[in-house]
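My hope is that you will study the protein record below before we discuss the fold together.
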Amino acid sequence: MATIAMDRIGRLFINLQQLRQMPLLLTQAAPSMPANLRDTEVPRYFREAHVHSGYRPLGQSWSYYLRSLFQRHNETVNTWTHLLGFLVFLLALCRLAETVDFVGDPHAWPLLVLAVSAMGYNGCSAAAHLLGGKSELCHYLFFFMDYIGVAQYQYGSATVHFYYALEESWHARVAGVFMPAAVVLSCLSCLGCCYGKFCSHSLPTWVRRVGQVTPSALAYAWDTSPVFQRLLRWSADDDEAALCFHLGQVVFFLSSAFFFTYPLPQRWFPGRCDIVGQSHQIFHVLLNLCTLSQIRASHLDYLGRRRLYSRLHGEGEAGLVVGLYVVTVAACVLIAAGMVVKVKRVLDGKVQKCK
């Protein structure tokens, strides 16, 4: 018996030893990955202020950039914050679909547009941060796609705020212009961001920031005006839970805008936030929290304000809102495509000069 027991213990020990070697074996079996680079080793248009290391080399295969999702570099956290955000909003949509009839109830379509647009901006941004480092053309292409995601989310926000959060007095003033203006402002936001990116290395940083932030700020002020009005007129008759979530989305958005605009804390600790702690990573997290609060507030409004919004919005208006969403996405795609053409001309001109 003792011999059998010792034999089994010996086999278990050998198996444990083999198990401990598995990570090393997997590392050896995987294709080798090029080492990360410092900021001085990559072109200027790839460099981020106060981020000194963690840059991936250019010109690698697509599989390299896909596999870099699981590697340590200065875009890892940026990618994962939006990938996880995409999954969170997909789960939120699935949970909503258990109680909300997105097919048979047209009044639920604006809520569906918000959820889809939330997944859209997360997916586009994740792709930009993961794949935008392959080449200069890819850098512009994927970040223009990111700006399409932002613009269509701005429209999604306007949709639920106009449809569910609007007060009757504000509806009487803006009913015919609110959603068309939201389309125009979303397209201007996309154009401003794309053009700011295109000129990012020929203009001072503050000029680019103004060009990108001003249209987005105007869009936010207009799209969220129904929420601001309700918060300013907070009364005991309104749904306190919904207003708390509306207040939360405003606070989270303004906080995210601060970290998008100012490179903190990496400005205070240059080179120490290269992998974790960049302002853009904080911006991603705060924006996702803003969207979560927004979805929750809109769902509560959908449930609690049905008598009001079903009276304010006539037959077919929900379908028009969805149609304008498609128009917004298509217009933003055309804007980005036009900017890609401009970028390609500039890059082709660089190649000709080198020859």
DSSP finds 14 helices and no strands in the chain. Residues 35 and 56 are 7 Å apart (CA to CA). The mean pLDDT is 89.
